[in-house]
């Protein structure tokens, strides 16, 4: 298969160009070209590594959805403003417009933009204290990622041709699901901490420009809370814009109604499923896995719908405020749901080989007594 990298470069150039030109017909033409290249990359190219294939197809499909938001559903050169921006983008000098365009296509959460997602957790620490703190957290998450990878590499449930996550029972499945989330969360948090520390140290950004990627874990009492606050919100703006367009422009549901709300909910999770399934397809070209991944994300919306029904019934009986007991029960529910539903998506990544890579240098694996566990 041909290499994906030249086509990825072409996709990025087209995406950047689409934010610099003012002509709407030309921007739409650029979007169609981007869509064709994205589909070709996912269907017909490879990076040479299963993990890299997955993490190429996934962000590319998200970027295409974000481009659809910026090109088909809005006109950001007139409506999107960065913090401190005094004029619409089309009126800015070219250098400022280039920086504007680069930021808007990469800043999926809309940090410091007029469309910033709600509820971000910022730091107001002094620059030096922030950099030192981020480096400490980077080291912590690196060690956690390293340890999780070491465990996974010696766990048959994480081998490409290994056993099922729940083959040895429910407790074993729960452990495997927990290790999967730990591996991904620590890897993402490590990179976020490192990049934020470097860019803030170089005075390219301020500490408040790097909100924490995850919400507080102990506040995760519903599946809705997990996906809406606890887990990263990188997909929120691209998917929500399409959900709102479908609910309010296509179906013309009134804003705030259940029909509008649930149309947006199911659209968001369907698109999320397609994004992740695109990464899986580029990695393995397996139709059943594509379906399984998409279905995994759709059933998250089903779980949220059930939660809403239970909460509504509780309110009918006068239960309106959360107590310690209800919060604890909610956390148990989220954990059980995650353990039960997780393998539907996680095993597709494992069987495709996306979990075989680890940190370039293992610190934990070099500790006395642990070297024998290195793969």
Automatic annotation (TrEMBL):
Q: Where in the cell is it found?
A: Membrane
Domain named Wax synthase is located at: 210-298
What are the GO MF terms of this UniProt record?
O-acyltransferase activity
Which keywords annotate this record? Membrane, Transferase, Transmembrane, Transmembrane helix
Record keywords: Transmembrane helix included? yes
Q: Which GO terms describe its biological process?
A: lipid metabolic process
Q: Which domain of life is it from?
A: Eukaryota
Establish whether keyword Transmembrane is in the entry: yes
Q: Which residues cross the membrane?
A: 6-22, 29-48, 54-73, 249-275, 295-314, 321-340
Membrane association type: Multi-pass membrane protein
Signal peptide: which range, if any?
Answer: none
Q: What is its main location?
A: membrane
InterPro entries, from UniProt? Wax_synthase, Wax_synthase_dom
Q: Which GO terms describe its cellular component?
A: membrane
Q: Which Pfam families match?
A: MBOAT_2
Q: What family is reported? A: Belongs to the wax synthase family.
**PANTHER family the record matches:** LONG-CHAIN-ALCOHOL O-FATTY-ACYLTRANSFERASE 3-RELATED, WAX SYNTHASE DOMAIN-CONTAINING PROTEIN
Protein name (database record): Membrane bound O-acyl transferase family-domain-containing protein
Lineage per the UniProt record: Eukaryota, Fungi, Dikarya, Basidiomycota, Agaricomycotina
């Amino acid at each position: 298969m041909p290499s994906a990298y030249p086509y990825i470069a072409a996709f990025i150039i087209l995406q950047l160009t689409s934010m610099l030109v003012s002509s709407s017909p030309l921007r739409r033409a650029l979007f169609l070209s981007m869509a064709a290249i994205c589909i070709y990359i996912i269907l017909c190219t490879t990076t040479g590594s299963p993990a890299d294939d997955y993490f190429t197809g996934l962000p590319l499909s998200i970027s295409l959805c974000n481009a659809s938001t910026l090109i088909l559903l809005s006109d950001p050169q007139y409506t999107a403003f960065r913090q401190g921006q005094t004029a619409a983008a089309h009126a800015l000098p070219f250098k400022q417009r280039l920086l504007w365009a680069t930021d808007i296509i990469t800043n999926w959460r809309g940090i410091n933009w007029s469309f910033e997602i709600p509820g971000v957790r910022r730091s107001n620490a002094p620059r030096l204290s922030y950099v030192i703190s981020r480096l400490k957290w980077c080291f912590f998450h690196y060690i956690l990622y390293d340890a999780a990878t070491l465990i996974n590499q010696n766990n048959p449930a994480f081998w490409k041709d290994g056993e099922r996550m729940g083959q040895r029972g429910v407790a074993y499945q729960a452990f495997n699901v927990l290790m999967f989330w730990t591996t991904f969360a620590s890897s993402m948090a490590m990179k976020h901490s490192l990049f934020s520390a470097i860019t803030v140290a170089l005075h390219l950004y301020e500490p408040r420009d790097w909100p924490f990627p995850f919400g507080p874990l102990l506040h995760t009492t519903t599946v809705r809370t997990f996906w809406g606050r606890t887990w990263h919100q990188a997909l929120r703006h691209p998917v929500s814009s399409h959900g709102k367009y479908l609910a309010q422009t296509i179906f013309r549901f009134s804003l705030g109604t259940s029909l509008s709300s649930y149309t947006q909910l199911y659209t968001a999770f369907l698109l999320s499923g397609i994004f992740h399934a695109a990464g899986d397809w580029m990695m393995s070209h397996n139709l059943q896995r594509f379906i399984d991944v998409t279905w995994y994300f759709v059933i998250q919306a089903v779980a949220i719908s059930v939660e809403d029904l239970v909460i509504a019934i509780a309110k009918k009986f006068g239960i309106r405020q959360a107590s310690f007991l209800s919060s604890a029960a909610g956390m148990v529910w989220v954990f059980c749901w995650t353990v039960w539903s997780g393998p539907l998506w996680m095993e597709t990544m494992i069987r495709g080989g996306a979990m075989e890579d680890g940190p370039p240098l293992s610190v934990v694996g070099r500790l006395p007594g642990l070297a024998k566990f290195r793969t």
